[in-house]
């Protein structure tokens, strides 16, 4: 794109790149972010978008990618190319750690073969040469230090150093002990001076021992001497250490020579690590701005749904505010959108959002818009935003704008996206307006796509009757006198100049003078625009309210149908249980009567015995009789309240009051809930309700009170999410709830798809719907039961 760097920076693309760089783990990744450019090749853009989207899916829905170390092994590989040069212990450790990461990443994707095709392409045909790691392992340990047994000579030298150090220590301890017993030593213990172990001696005794004095105390009263016997041993240790260093260099040189044939492969591994760091940073930034992957088409068009400016979104997040989403479409039918409306109403932000999101897509970045958005590919991007006056070129603001217009008209074509802010301003509106209209007509004739913002009425009128150009306005609440930051396509917007001036406090007489100076036609047009905008706002608010009421009605209807169905089933069960209970009572009573008669006969009708048997019979019959619940009349001044026990006037069904809504009472009857009018219920004494019913109710209502028909499964693995949803589903059916709310997030839609496919197998499910777009859209699923 011509002037791409300057244009994209005006849109905020430089800030976007800085935010992505902050997520990089390595300098190589940060350098790659600096090189991000706007691309024009459809396949290349699609590949880069796919990589970012797949990595975002890994971060949100899969196990963590085993990325632990990012070192610049390209520099190390180039160093290895040079004959006679060797890598240090630390550098070999970096190569080893980087290769371990590379092989772990490749193994990770091999386990998920076919799941992330765009990321798998990063290491396609890249061999896994574990021989490099094995060679380094033989020489360098896990802490990055050379192994004592890296060679036979090194092992012997190391052992010799250990023996000499032990002998020197033993010798100096003996000398120190003897000197101490003679009273020659100063206070303190053995100490290190110039890398040598020394004895602290009183200065007056320094000639009583043979040795080399390395230092003395500040007061001069103590000297630090290395005894003669130890001096020779320490020199021997130093010689051995020099031998060890030479052997280590010899080993590292040999290892570097073995590594030299693998330099091209090391560079390939470096490239993979750099790309992974780069793509990871893009994915993390996408999560920050709640970005999705739009549908990509190979044509010059753009359709944004619920789009938000990414930088504005991040700033608002810090302030716990939300960004009003943007919906706009630019294609062959609507080539140029002319946006009008009040100052500070969001016109420029709207245009910059379109330009920045288009730039991000063509740079391979996910965008803060719905995945339903459709974004094409433009060959050129022309931007005229801000003041480009130049002292060097002696250009005024308007001259600078005209220079841009000249360039746009000459170079733009059907695959150009043009963004112009405050179109035509900077000179006398009487002349600036017609020039801007002529430029707009020329751009439209060349099939250029774009968006312009303006206050000029002639441009609004021109757009209203010109094919390919569409008016749009930023909505404004003319009652509260504040912008709504919502784009309304299809009609121009008023600048609300007089209304804003009045709110600011401009004197009324000045306002009246100003109103008298504008033409009657212009005044009529502006008044008409204000009225249209007000009516549109009222219609929009009414529609939102109606949609909310309709959802509530639908939910109540669904709940009512569910309750009715469960009530019918419960009614049959109660009748069946009552019949079974009555049958058992009759059978028991018959047996009791027969046994009583038999005993009376066997006792030859003894009066006392007969009386006792009759009393036992009456007691058993009384105990097995089903006692009806006697209703306690409701006093005139006593209101029914939640927790009271009641029964329906036209039945013997008993339940407990859960909630009172105006003249309606919600009653819990066993596992069911029902709604009845107050006049249809009778309050009963708690003591008349059988303990079994009260006990069952207490356990059920406790569960019901704590039950929440909503679940959030974001971040869960699919099997865990389905398991939790199934448990919630069973409890909701048991307790008579009409619907469930499942929050699963958007992502790639994989989790949403799996959940819906799983729930379709249940006959109890009537339908599933997305949440309203303003409250989560397809990131939330409502499940309605039959």
TrEMBL record:
InterPro entries: DNA_mismatch_repair_MutS_C, DNA_mismatch_repair_MutS_core, DNA_mismatch_repair_MutS_sf, MutS, MutS2, P-loop_NTPase, Smr_dom, Smr_dom_sf. Belongs to the DNA mismatch repair MutS family. MutS2 subfamily. The keyword Hydrolase applies. It comes from Mucilaginibacter gotjawali. It holds the Pfam family MutS_V. HAMAP family: MutS2. Transmembrane segments: none annotated. Endonuclease that is involved in the suppression of homologous recombination and thus may have a key role in the control of bacterial genetic diversity. Acts as a ribosome collision sensor, splitting the ribosome into its 2 subunits. Detects stalled/collided 70S ribosomes which it binds and splits by an ATP-hydrolysis driven conformational change. Acts upstream of the ribosome quality control system (RQC), a ribosome-associated complex that mediates the extraction of incompletely synthesized nascent chains from stalled ribosomes and their subsequent degradation. Probably generates substrates for RQC. SMART domains: MUTSac, MUTSd, SMR. ATP binds at residues 341-348. This is Endonuclease MutS2. GO terms for biological process: mismatch repair; negative regulation of DNA recombination; rescue of stalled ribosome. GO terms for molecular function: ATP binding; ATP hydrolysis activity; ATP-dependent DNA damage sensor activity; endonuclease activity; mismatched DNA binding; ribosomal large subunit binding; rRNA binding. Keywords: ATP-binding, DNA-binding, Endonuclease, Hydrolase, Nuclease, Nucleotide-binding, RNA-binding, rRNA-binding. Homodimer. Binds to stalled ribosomes, contacting rRNA. Its EC number is 3.1.-.-, 3.6.4.-. The keyword Signal does not apply. Signal peptide: none annotated. It comes from the Bacteria.
């Amino acid at each position: 794109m011509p002037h791409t760097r300057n244009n994209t920076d005006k849109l905020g693309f430089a800030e976007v790149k800085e935010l992505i760089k902050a997520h990089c783990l390595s300098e190589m990744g940060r350098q790659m972010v600096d090189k991000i450019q706007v691309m024009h090749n459809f396949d290349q853009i699609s590949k880069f978008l796919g990589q970012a989207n797949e990595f975002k899916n890994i971060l949100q829905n899969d196990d963590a990618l085993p990325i632990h170390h990012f070192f610049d092994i390209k520099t190390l590989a180039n160093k290895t190319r040079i004959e006679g040069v060797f890598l240090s212990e630390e550098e070999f450790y970096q190569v080893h750690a980087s290769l371990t990461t590379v092989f772990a990443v490749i193994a990770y994707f091999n386990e998920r073969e076919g799941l992330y095709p765009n990321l798998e392409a990063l290491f396609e045909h890249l061999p896994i040469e574990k021989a490099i790691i094995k060679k380094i392992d033989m020489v360098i340990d896990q802490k990055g230090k050379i192994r004592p047994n890296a060679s036979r000579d090194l092992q012997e030298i190391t052992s010799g150093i250990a023996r000499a150090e032990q002998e020197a220590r033993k010798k100096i301890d003996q000398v120190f002990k003897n000197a101490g017993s003679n009273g020659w030593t100063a206070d303190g213990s053995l100490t290190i001076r110039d890398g040598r172990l020394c004895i602290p001696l009183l200065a007056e005794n320094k000639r009583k021992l043979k040795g080399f004095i390395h230092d003395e105390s500040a007061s001069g009263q103590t000297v630090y001497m290395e005894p003669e016997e130890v001096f020779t041993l320490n020199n021997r240790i130093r010689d051995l250490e020099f031998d060890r260093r030479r052997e280590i260099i010899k080993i590292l040189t040999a290892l570097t020579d073995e590594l030299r044939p693998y330099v091209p492969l090391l560079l390939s591994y470096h490239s993979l690590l750099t790309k992974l760091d780069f793509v990871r940073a893009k994915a993390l930034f996408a999560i920050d701005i709640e970005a999705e992957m739009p549908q990509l088409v190979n044509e010059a068009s753009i359709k944004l749904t619920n789009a938000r400016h990414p930088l504005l979104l991040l700033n608002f997040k810090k302030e716990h505010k939300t960004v009003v989403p943007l919906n706009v479409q630019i294609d062959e039918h609507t080539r140029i959108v002319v946006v009008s409306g009040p100052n500070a109403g969001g016109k420029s932000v709207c245009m910059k959002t379109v330009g920045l999101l288009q730039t991000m897509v063509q740079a391979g970045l996910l965008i803060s818009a719905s995945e339903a958005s459709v974004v094409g590919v433009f060959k050129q991007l022309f931007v005229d935003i801000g003041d480009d006056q130049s002292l060097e070129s002696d250009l005024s603001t308007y001259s600078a704008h005209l220079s841009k217009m000249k360039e746009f008209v000459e170079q733009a074509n059907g695959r150009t996206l043009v963004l112009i802010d405050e179109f035509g301003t900077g000179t006398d509106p009487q002349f600036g307006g017609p020039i801007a209209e002529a430029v707009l007509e020329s751009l439209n004739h060349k099939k250029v796509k774009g968006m312009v913002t303006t206050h000029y009425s002639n441009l609004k009128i021109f757009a209203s009757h010109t094919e390919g150009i569409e008016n749009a306005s930023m909505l404004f609440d003319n009652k509260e006198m504040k912008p709504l930051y919502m784009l309304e396509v299809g009609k121009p917007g008023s600048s609300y100049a007089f209304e804003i001036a009045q709110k600011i406090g401009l004197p009324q007489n000045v306002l009246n003078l100003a109103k008298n100076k504008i033409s009657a036609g212009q005044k009529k047009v502006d008044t008409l625009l204000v009225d249209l905008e007000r009516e549109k706002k009222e219609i929009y608010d009414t529609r939102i309210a109606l949609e909310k009421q309709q959802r509530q009605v639908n939910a109540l209807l669904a709940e009512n149908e569910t309750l009715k169905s469960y009530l019918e089933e419960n009614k049959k069960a109660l009748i069946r249980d009552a019949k079974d209970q009555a049958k058992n009572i009759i059978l028991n009573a018959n047996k009791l009567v027969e046994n009583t008669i038999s005993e009376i006969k066997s006792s030859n009708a003894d009066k006392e015995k007969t009386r006792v048997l009759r009393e036992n019979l009456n007691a058993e019959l009384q105990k097995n009789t089903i006692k009806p619940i006697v209703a306690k009349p409701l006093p005139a001044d006593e209101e029914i309240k939640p927790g009271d026990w009641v029964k329906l006037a036209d039945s013997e069904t008993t339940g407990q009051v859960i909630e009172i809504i105006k003249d309606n009472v919600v009653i819990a009857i066993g596992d069911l809930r029902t709604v009845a009018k107050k006049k249809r219920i009778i309050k009963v004494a708690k003591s008349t309700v059988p303990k079994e019913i009260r006990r069952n109710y207490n356990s059920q209502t406790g569960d019901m009170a704590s039950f929440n028909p909503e679940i959030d499964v974001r971040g869960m693995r699919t099997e865990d999410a389905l398991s939790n949803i199934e448990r919630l589903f069973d409890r909701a059916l048991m307790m008579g709830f009409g619907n469930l709310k499942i929050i699963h997030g958007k992502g790639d839609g994989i989790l949403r798809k799996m959940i819906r496919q799983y729930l379709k197998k249940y006959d109890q499910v009537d339908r599933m719907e997305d949440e309203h777009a303003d409250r989560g859209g397809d990131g939330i699923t409502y499940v309605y039961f039959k």
